[in-house]
Specification:
Strand content: 15-25%
Structural class: alpha/beta
Helix content: 25-40%
CATH class of the largest domain: Alpha Beta
Radius of gyration: 28 Å
Number of helices: 22
CATH architecture of the largest domain: 3-Layer(aba) Sandwich
Number of strands: 18
Length: about 525
């Protein structure tokens, strides 16, 4: 007898359908797996045998051949266990022959007791099943919530083999899982709030501009001034994730295995803060079977690199291409995958190794040679890709001891950020309406930091007063073409916060001030 059921596998953050075919013949008992299975898939034979017997069924004494199609793609991991078991039980008659397995997809790892365990990438697999026209998806209770967010597919949480067999045989029916409703857009954690940060009004303004435009930020200053404290509060003023962003972010975390059990969607913007001892593959992704790195796990969120000069220079230099392309392609001998990496980079650093270079009261103990060596760990090309560079000064006693009546909460700042993003989004929507065929230059632009040179020429045109400021800054600061474009992007964001389509002198002046710090330290 021949039985055929569907499962799915993942490649990058995309899933693809795997057809599991089982042929049963009356011959010497055996079980062969073909179709390029890796070690984990080949070991499923022992898990399946034990799961069937410990669930109260007799393992069929037949010659079983299981083919995993397409046969030219390497199958990895344990997600195919459930589909292989289902095809074997159907071919052996444990699952009745009249049971309709068409339109059903099975994904999950088996324990020896017959329990169904969670696997990585379930959301990607369920999305692939929907694209293939499959209407029912069976997986573990831990993975079911993330699969249930895919529209058009009934998701069943299967705890064990007996429950699955009873459902397919019509003995007792499972109920499809319903996805949780998306949370209120204003529902943001109040654990970290900008109101907790004393003083630093200018730095808070810089982070507000960064949040409104999606710009990268460098915070530089002596120890204890609040650089890390400010950076950790940036997600609290970012706009809420849209459903599409939430879905894309969840796919990455599902593939990486970092999605908490029972979580359907990642509903808050990621904040990743890796230690400075990390390697380049940990940052950009890699491994024998390429997995997402920190820059992809920070997709649609914030990547915070504290103590930036302490990172290996090979690690920080590997950021340059993803910062431009908003994606990273990892190539290995057994394949190539591309992961999205549209993250907002926030870096913090001291101005020297002792931390007090340029401090008005605390003497610096570093030599000029030591200071130069410390700062030169940050290359010019990387600095060029950081739109906003702001100094975080030490606070006075009065600023620390007295309450600040003008301190704004994250919710207040966030409302202005959301308003500015909507102002920019309406501009992009109007441009998209001019070319509704999908070839609009606005495609893929989520914020001002994504503006292409073509869009900069159209929407970032300074007036005469602003041009004069730019001309003077270009000559004095020795700006590159990239730095010039980035100043215009920041000026566009400042104007958006003011609700102005025109870019005036004060908008450009503020943008230039937010980018001049590298000349103070690196020159």
């Amino acid at each position: 007898m021949l039985s055929s059921v569907y499962s799915a596998a993942i490649q990058g953050i995309d899933g693809y359908i795997v057809t599991t075919e089982c042929s049963a013949a009356k011959s010497l008992p055996s079980l062969e797996l073909v179709g390029l299975p890796d070690t984990a898939v080949r070991e499923s034979k022992e898990r399946i045998r034990a799961a069937i017997e410990n669930s109260g069924f007799k393992f069929p004494e037949l010659a079983l051949t299981v083919n995993l199609a397409p046969a030219d793609k390497k199958k990895e991991g344990s997600a195919l266990d459930l589909a292989i078991l289902t095809s074997i039980l159907h071919a052996a008659g444990v699952i009745r022959e009249k049971a309709d397995l068409h339109g059903k997809c099975f994904s999950g790892e088996l324990s020896l007791s017959g329990q169904i365990r969670s696997v990585r990438g379930t959301l990607c697999m369920c999305a692939a099943a929907r694209e293939a026209g499959i209407t029912e998806f069976y997986t573990s209770p831990e993975n079911a919530p993330e699969a249930a967010v895919v529209d058009g597919v009934d998701v069943y949480a299967v705890p064990d083999v007996n429950t699955l067999v009873d459902h397919l045989n019509g003995v007792s029916a499972l109920t499809p899982l319903k996805p949780d409703a998306m949370p209120d857009a204003e529902g943001v954690s109040e654990a970290l709030d900008f109101a907790d940060v004393k003083g630093q009004t200018r730095v808070k303004r810089a982070l507000e501009i960064a949040a409104a435009g999606g710009h990268n930020v460098l915070l530089i200053g002596p120890p204890g001034t609040g650089k890390s404290m400010l950076a950790k509060r940036l997600p609290s003023i970012l706009p809420p994730l849209s459903f599409e962003e939430s879905l894309e972010t969840t796919k990455i975390h599902s593939v990486a295995g970092t999605l908490p059990a029972g979580v359907g969607l990642v509903r808050t913007r990621p904040f990743r803060s890796p230690h400075h001892t990390m390697s380049a593959p940990s940052l950009v992704g890699g491994g024998k079977n390429p997995m997402p790195g920190e820059i992809s796990l920070a997709h649609n969120g914030v990547l915070f690199l504290d103590e930036l000069p302490e990172f290996n220079k090979l690690v920080t230099e590997s950021l340059r291409q993803p910062l431009e392309d908003r994606r990273v392609t990892i190539t290995r001998a057994n394949g190539r995958v591309t992961y999205p990496s549209a993250f907002q980079l926030v870096c913090a650093m001291n101005p020297c190794r002792c931390g007090y270079y340029g401090h008005p009261t605390h003497p610096c103990t570093c030599s000029q040679k030591d200071i130069h060596a410390y700062l030169s760990k940050i290359s010019g090309p990387l600095l060029d890709r950081i739109d906003i560079q702001i100094e975080v000064p030490s606070l006075s006693f009065s600023e620390l001891s007295e309450p600040d009546p003008k301190a704004e909460t994250s919710a207040e700042i966030r409302r202005r950020v959301v308003k500015a993003r909507k102002f920019a989004a309406d501009r992009m929507a109007a441009l998209a309406d001019e070319q509704p065929d999908g070839d609009s230059p606005a495609c893929g632009v989520r914020c001002n930091a994504d503006l292409t040179p073509r869009l900069i020429r159209r929407f970032c045109v300074p007036d005469e007063g602003a041009k004069r400021i730019l001309e003077g800054a270009f000559g004095k600061m020795g700006m590159s073409a990239r730095a010039y474009d980035r100043i215009l992007r920041v000026a566009r964001t400042v104007a958006d916060l003011d609700g102005s389509e025109a870019i005036g002198a004060r908008h450009v002046a503020e943008a230039v001030q937010l980018r001049s710090l590298d000349r103070k330290y690196w020159n």
